[in-house]
Amino acid sequence: MPARAMTKTAMPPAKQVESFIAKFDPGIARVVRAARSKLRKRYPTAHELVYDNYNALAIGYGPNERTSEVFFSVAAYARGVTLYFTRGRKIADPKCLLQGEGNQGAFVRVESAAVLDDRDVIALMDSAVSIGTTPLAASSRGRTIVKSISAKQRPRRLPAKKR
């Protein structure tokens, strides 16, 4: 189901995002909430594009509402959280932190939000922002935009026997 403009009956984006996060196990939800908080503080002018997709909850950060210009995303799965870099193969990675076999994208596992405070991970994020086609605004405040909600989704929590 595509995102809708907020009406009197629709939830504000912040409440929608919280409802998406609440579907996950408490440990994963805690990491996602903390990651969002850290990224909003570090990149206050970035827009937050939210996709509650079939496979994952993806929260992308970019200079505008265009998905194609997202620098990186926090992706939450039932098994964990990653920081996905859209153009990960084009950014400098001297510490070889980036994982994945893709030709363009790459990711870092986010076991805790403290990963986002690591100076090498911050360097990756800053590098991703610097190679973006559109720079972040110097001032103003980025918005949270719910771009899509998939009607059918994989379970957001692992069965008790797999935890």
Structure description:
This protein has 163 residues and is an alpha+beta fold. Helix content is 23%, strand content 21%. The chain has one domain. The protein has a six-stranded mixed sheet. A hairpin with a 4-residue loop joins strand 1 and strand 2 (57-62). The longest helix is centred in the N-terminal third of the chain and has 17 residues, at 26-42. The protein is globular and about 40 Å long.
Low-confidence runs of at least 5 consecutive residues: 1-9
Task: Please outline the major beta sheet.
Answer: 6 strands, mixed
Order of helices and strands: HHEEEEEHE
Main-sheet strand order equals 5-4-3-2-1-6
Instruction: Describe the global form.
Output: globular
Q: How many helices?
A: 3
Number of strands: 6
List the helices and strands and how they pair.
Blueprint: H1 13-21, H2 26-42, E1 47-52, E2 57-62, E3 72-77, E4 80-85, E5 106-109, H3 119-130, E6 144-149
Parallel strand pairs: 1-6
Antiparallel strand pairs: 1-2, 2-3, 3-4, 4-5
Summary tags:
163 residues, alpha+beta, six-stranded mixed sheet, 3 helices, 6 strands, 21% strand, globular, disordered N terminus
Short description:
Helices cover 23% and strands 21% of the residues. It is built from 3 helices and 6 strands, in the order ααβββββαβ. A hairpin with a 4-residue loop joins β1 and β2 (57-62).
